[in-house]
């Protein structure tokens, strides 16, 4: 009996255990809008990481920072992530919502993630130029400011490298096509790696 228990214990110890749980908390860009489940950048990131880490994708299409701020505490409690990849704000900007509120909501989510013991990777976005230079500049400055204040990991622009290439977007001009997802994944992965080594 003792020998059998010892063998079972050794077998359990030999099973691969993810070094970290990563929570991706974003909007349609991370939920894979218009794509099959295995095509989005989050699925590609899980493939890149392999079994070493586990990704929980709690992203929701249409999510605003206000919705995210109210939803995040429960998600943190359930999944207990070591890293939170926070990709929200695009829908606030597209709706022309007050940027002070967006900043306050993102600040709340960063603080909640850190209080739960997670490292944060903040992912920024850009708005179409038709929103006007003052608003788009102020929108992007929100991410710069928060990343600096909280010393988070930081991806300034999820769609870096193809933001002005219309061929890389679906018909709506907002959501990247499947062929652009690997580039998005690599953009995130480059800034994620230092957090996984912390």
Automatic annotation (TrEMBL):
Q: Does the keyword Signal apply?
A: yes
Q: Which residues form the signal peptide?
A: 1-19
ATP-binding keyword on record: no
- Annotated SGNH hydrolase-type esterase domain ranges read 24-181
Under CDD domains, the record lists:
Lysophospholipase_L1_like
* Family matches, as Gene3D superfamilies: SGNH hydrolase
**Taxonomy, superkingdom:** Bacteria
Task: Return any one Pfam family short name.
Answer: Lipase_GDSL_2
Keywords, sorted A to Z: Signal
Give the PROSITE patterns listed for this entry: LIPASE_GDSL_SER (PS01098)
Q: What is this protein called?
A: Arylesterase
């Amino acid at each position: 009996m003792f020998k059998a228990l010892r063998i079972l214990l050794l077998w359990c110890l030999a099973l691969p255990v993810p070094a970290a749980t990563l929570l991706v908390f974003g909007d349609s860009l991370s939920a894979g809008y218009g794509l099959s489940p295995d095509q989005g950048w989050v699925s590609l990131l899980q493939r890149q990481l392999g079994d070493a880490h586990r990704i929980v994708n709690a992203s929701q299409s249409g999510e605003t920072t206000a919705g995210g701020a109210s939803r995040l505490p429960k998600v943190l409690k359930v999944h207990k992530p070591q890293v939170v990849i926070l990709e929200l704000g695009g829908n606030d900007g597209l709706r022309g919502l007050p940027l002070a509120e967006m900043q306050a909501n993102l600040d709340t989510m960063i603080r909640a993630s850190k209080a739960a013991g997670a490292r944060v990777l903040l992912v920024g976005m850009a708005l179409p130029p038709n929103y006007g230079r003052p608003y788009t500049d102020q929108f992007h400055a929100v991410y710069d400011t928060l990343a600096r204040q909280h010393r988070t990991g930081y991806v300034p622009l999820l769609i870096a490298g193809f933001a002005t290439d219309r061929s890389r977007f679906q018909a709506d001009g907002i959501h990247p096509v499947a062929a652009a997802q690997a580039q998005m994944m690599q953009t995130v992965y480059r800034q994620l790696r230092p957090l996984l080594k912390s």
